[in-house]
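Reply to dn_fold:

You asked what the input looked like. This is it:
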Amino acid sequence: MAERVRIGIIGSGGMGHAHANAYSGDARARIVAVADTDKARARALGEKAGAKAYSDLAQMLGKERLDAVSVCTPPAGHLQATLAALDAGCHVLCEKPMALNAAQAERMVKRAAARRRLLIAAFCHRFHEPNLVAKRLIGEGRIGKVLQFRNRFAGMIPMEGKWFSDPKVAGGGAIIDTSIHSIDLFRYLVGDAVSVSARLATMIQPIKVEDSSMLLLQTADGAIGSIEACWSSPLSGAMIEIYGSQGTLIVDYETGLRYRTTAMKVWRRPKLTGPDRFTAQARHFLDCVLGERDPIVTGRDGWMAARIADAAYASVKQKVWVAV
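and this is what came back:
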């Protein structure tokens, strides 16, 4: 391994810039190359990051000696970009959804294992500090047995004319784009889902995918989760509520974390001083690439989330609970 981890960014849109910004604050990382089929966008991010710009991924992987890459293309490009990077000997941090479906995600996971390289799904909400603290409190048994989970990620997000609303590029709508994070958070904070029921609608925006969705998940021991996503509801926000047999945890993305147990008379708000979730995610990825710690999220998590998303879409068509 080089003294500094040599990073390539694949895709120079909004997420490419977010990943580049996150790496830029860590002295262990050096962004050396950027690839995007749009030459102008690749050049713009390359100039910002002090990196060489490429319009051809194969050329970048062939010419540059890279240790790791961030895959930040739209979802339809994740499979081939990840396989190519793994074959070139790179560790991979792949944006969500890791793939368009579970079959693609499985191919990615198996290729990473065959190449003995890390594949980490970029579920950045695992690195949101209130969620990390919630995970610790649950693990310590502070709220007892987790019974119910509720998560809402929503707002007014116009998608007309964007790739997010093209099912061939995005793989779907609010479920696979927005609720894929929620699905992962349910698995992270509560446990593996064994069945799912879902409903979706497109009521406001003139797009070909859902702008509104709701999922119900259940674990083998009975814990139930409800997941809401909407791109067309102004004055909505981001909330997670976790109800246990001995207490409650609430994460409000505007105000932080508060929790209360049956032994407490008032709500408690832990002091939070950590970095933003993208910075924390980049630091963690570098830690893992350097062998300093084991990943808290892997390609398998991306694969499992894809399986649940597939089951959710199947539930919509069949109007029944679907086993995962």
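The mean pLDDT is 97.
Hope that clears it up.
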